[in-house]
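At this stage, I wrote out one protein, both as residues and as discrete backbone shape codes, and that material follows here.
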Amino acid sequence: MQANQQARTSTGMLGRRRWGPLAWPYLFALPFVLAYAAFQLYPVVYSFILSLHDWNGIGAKTYIGFRNYEDLLTRDPLFFKSLSNTLIMMLMSIPATLIVGVLLAYWTFQLNKGRKLFQTVNFLPYITTPVAIGFIFSYLFDWQTGLINLVLLKFGWLTEGIYWLQGEWTSRMIIALMVVWRNLGYFMVIYIAGMTAIPQDVYEAAKIDGSTGFHTFTRITMPLLRNITVFLVVTSVINGLQLFDEPKLLYGGWSGSAQVGGPDNTALTVIWKFVDDSFISNTRFGYSSAIAYSLFVLIVLFSIISYKITAPKEDGR
């Protein structure tokens, strides 16, 4: 009996010695897990539950099932208007940023002097506050005092100023230009980092074989940067579907104007509609939660599609 008790004691001590080291990682991770559950997971779950209710933020919640999603997809033309605006501005900005970014990166990578200065100057717009960006472009494209109209009128290329910010396509073009101007330095830096990682032996071998600069860029540099391009495309699609700062600040964020969505809602994005329905024009938190979850599904869908299109294909598939 004493032997059995000693055996159980030794087994318990062995178990504690075995599980003690294994428990420490979980204990160290516990604060992050609790913080993530409280400030990330719970709001996400609660937002979905809220999307199934009609609630103005003050009174009692009324459960209505998926009626918010039904109204959003069948009775709200502004949702599809905002989605089409967002996609159009993405198609305007993402290809231009990719092409100009990789060309600038390749040119900068070849520089012997002034390379760091050029990188810094081009990266500054990426760290500039959105408020300043909205002010700059509002000033540049203003109808009466804008620098663009003044220059065009000065050289005689126009007889009267253009209403840049009040046109359907010019407003989208300006917002796309803002996105390109802001993200160009970031794209350039990422591409330069990828070019730095390419072994120089590859370029030396190509040069010995008589490869020209254009041939080297298209047949060697670009294929080796394929993974970086995929990363930039996918992240640009995710960020593009969440476009908000540029159009909001361009149409009154800095001046206090109440022009929501720009002229005839041609600059309205999905996130801007979400904010407007939540805190400005309406206080329909259940409906706004349905917009947020619908956008989440769209982001996942478009991210998968963009990855499938741009990712390198495996042999035999």
Q: What stands out?
A: Residues 88 and 206 are 40 Å apart (CA to CA).
